[in-house]
Amino acid sequence: MATAGGVLLASWPLGFAIGVGLAAFGSLVLRHSARGNVMAGLLVGPVIWLFTRSTELALIAVTVGVLVAVRALSDWNRVYRELWLDRGK
Prior knowledge:
With 89 residues, this protein is mostly helical. It has helices spanning 2-11, 13-30, 33-52, 55-87. The chain has one domain (2-87). It is built from 4 helices and no strands.
């Protein structure tokens, strides 16, 4: 997340704020940080494109967002595996 934030901050500072806002909103609404990060990762590209209409910035945001979503999915799977293994005991 920090590297993704740095990329967004370097490419377009308002995009960084949008990404952080999406992640915070997703974490609060979904009550799980990994789910919120997946949601933010998948939405940051289209939202930045709506704000800028810049294909270059949108492609950067989509690439960063997909990487964040993939990384958050692995964390999501790890957490649920731990939860289900604890229930069996």
